[in-house]
Specification:
The complex is a heterodimer. Chain A contains 19 helices and 2 strands. By secondary structure, chain A is mainly α. In chain A, a hairpin with a 4-residue loop joins strand 1 (about 170-175) and strand 2 (about 180). The radius of gyration of chain B is 26 Å and the shape is flat. Classes of the chains: A mainly alpha, B mainly alpha.
Amino acid sequence: MITFGIVQFFAALIGVIIGIIFGALPGMTATMAVVVFLPLTYAYDLSTSLYLLLGLYVGGISGGLIPAILINIPGTPSSITTGFDGYPMAKRGEGVRALRIGITASLVGGIISLIVLAFFTPVLARFAIKFSAVEKFLVILFAMTVIAALSRGNMTKGIFSGFLGVLISLIGIFPDNQMMRMVPKIFADQLRDGFQLLPVLIGLFAFSQMFEQAENGMKDTFVEEDVLKGKQTRKFSFKDLKGQSINLIRSSLIGTFIGVLPGVGGSAASLMSYSQCKAWSKHPEKLGTGQVEGLVASEAANNGLTGGALVPLLSLGIPGDSTTAALVGAFMLQGVQVGPLFISQNPKLWYTILFALLLCNILMFIVMFYPIKYLANIIKVPMSKLYPAVVLMSVVGAFSARNGNMFDVVTLIVFGVIGYLFGKIGLPSTTFLIGFILGRDLEKYFVDSLKGSGGSLLVFFQRPMGLVIWGLIIIFLIYAFFDNRRARKQNSAAA
Amino acid sequence: MFDLFKIKIVYSKSHWVMPKIIIGVLIILGIIILIQESMKAKRENRPLFNFKGKRFFVENYDKLKLFGSIALLIIYIYAMKFLGFIFGSIIVISLFNILYSPKKDKKSILICIAISVIETLILWFVFGYLFEITLP
């Protein structure tokens, strides 16, 4: 029923280990790990590749807790709140304990989100099969609203960035009438099919990060003190998690839910979970001083993200975060369509994904839990030696995506610079990417809907299901408006 | 009145329907952002475009490493074209390693070159030979 063997096992193991390294290095992310290794999957079939990629994903998200706890710098954006309580614990000499609590919470988060993924995706997909072009268009529009709604204090820029992504995706030929648009004459050959997803992805998420690190002088190491060197005052025991079960489940579900919302990254998941933990805590004032509950909330939530982000991808074809957007690349390269029909058309692949995710979570736990004392040295790996390797793999990846096309390498560099500039002017790259991925579909469903209605825009308001989606869009916009105002007020109060 | 809610899809021009709408949306959003920024500027009593004291790059940014990276990437394209994948990569990746390396003495430069040679050969072997993937 599933694809599994020794090759797949090692693919998952290697994925998890490399993912942990990427996750643990501040300045490298889980998304980067997945995009850089995408080319390695050309040679394998999709299911084997997914073991590797899901391993990178789970490992990448989990590895972020190591530097967050040990040096108070999150290794990935999703571990942003882990250091709040993890670092004070490490300073008290409870570093290993904190790491092991974080790892265990990560495992629980991953498993709970996996359960949600397994049960929720088929339901959503069955529902979505009935969608006509009108609903499909509205769902994408809804996804883009959600993205914008959750870019707190930055809503207009979020929407702008998403639509810019849509516009860029439309460059090239329109399949309906085979006409070219927005292509300068000199690039008519190269841009026939527009910009390719893979070089855009690698550029936005690997090269832009590299430029940023280069600007900061490419620090060789972030480690100034070795907190694990001192005597450990308190050891980890599973009893530490006693009384945390509600917190664990709540945080995992929050993470999963945030993951389901398209385009919302891990940092939002852990931030929301942490603030909920504070709201429910018996001693909210103690949070931030090294409390187990804060650490659990952060780590359960960010691993909860993994399964959650796959829900909209596998049921609607809409990626839940930047890393799952990179997975779209893998599916596309192998010619597998993700969307409502995915599960019914690829049942074997679907069960393989579930199993692979379970395996990767367990492997992550085994690889991290026991040797954590030695593994903690990962954060000393010099970034200056890793980035050149990233360049090499990225260039090979971009070049070979279409069987050897130097223009794709140019695309890679151009989008690296664009991503870097986005960071400078505060446009979120993730929303741009999701707009870019969904842009062509958005256009197709829009034009198809209008063709069916003879051009009347009223078609978007006539079907009951469509009205429900409109309702959701409006709810999110109202929520976004108020949340945005609150965030701005908080920001100006803080400033 | 319903004509307001109509967009005519003409086959020969249908490829411009969506781009035009999106460009329209982007212009509107751009104006909104501009208004928001200028309102914020007014509240804080400062001119809208205040470049004084603002910097594009971080303070004391590493010019050599930042622009060096971009330049090396462009050189890389030409290097692969004229020298082929293996030699082009070894040279450019060595330069990348040397550029990023904090120490620039003879020993660390040799290490950088050694790393690059090994990485390039491994990648060439895995991709080009084992997987038979086209390399530059």
